[in-house]
Amino acid sequence: PCTAQVEGGLFEGGRPWPGQPASLTPPPIPVLRGPRRFSPTHCKLCPMDWLSHRGKCYWFSKDSKNWTESRADCSAKSSRKLVIQDQEEMEFIQNVTRGKYHVWLGLSVTSAEKNWTWVDNSVFPVTGPTDVNSCGVIKGNRIHSETCSAEFKWICQKEAVLL
After folding, report:
1. Predicted pLDDT of residue 2
2. Rounded CA separation 115/118 (Å)
3. pLDDT digit string (tens) for 90-126?
4. Are strands 103-109 and 153-159 parallel, antiparallel or unpaired?
5. pTM to 2 decimal places
6. Within 10 A of 142 (CB to CB), how many other CB atoms are there?
7. Which domains, from first to last, does the chain contain?
8. In the chain, which residues have pLDDT < 70?
9. Which residues contact 57 (CB under 8 A, 6 or more apart)?
10. Is residue 145 within a helix (H) or strand (E), and if so which, with residue range?
11. Which pairs with CB-CB distance under 8 Å and at least 24 residues apart come from 120-126?
12. Strand, coil or helix: what is 115?
């Protein structure tokens, strides 16, 4: 289980002390009061207002921007735009968004060869016609091509920090 321990008595309220990360996964259980020295644990931490899932942290925008502006926003948050690794991650995103809006992915056509590439530089193997100014977006349960200048919500992701 995920526990944060220090020497002393129980920490009341189930919340970390001021200045400590506010999101623990799984949810925090009582913490010991005393000097702020942690014993070895297996807690994965995400910043406040980020969702934790399978060792990653996800931030969901409330407004809309074009692909380039949304990528810059993720960089400013020391993260990157969403890279879908598998069907389970896609289902997690769909459950959070409930399919109500389109979401930019970290996927774009980056070269004259018209290869689809994720922001982590891995190739997304897609066949068919593609424009150079194309970027990936989730619509419902599928990935679609959109003009990069269109404005949609976006998702940033980064690895959770092991405590």
Report:
1. 55
2. 10
3. 999 999 998 888 999 999 997 777 789 999 989 888 7
4. parallel
5. 0.71
6. 8
7. 1-42 (no CATH), 50-162 (3.10.100.10)
8. 1-42, 128-129
9. 23, 46, 47, 50, 51, 79, 157, 158, 159, 160
10. strand 142-147
11. 120/80, 120/83, 122/83
12. coil
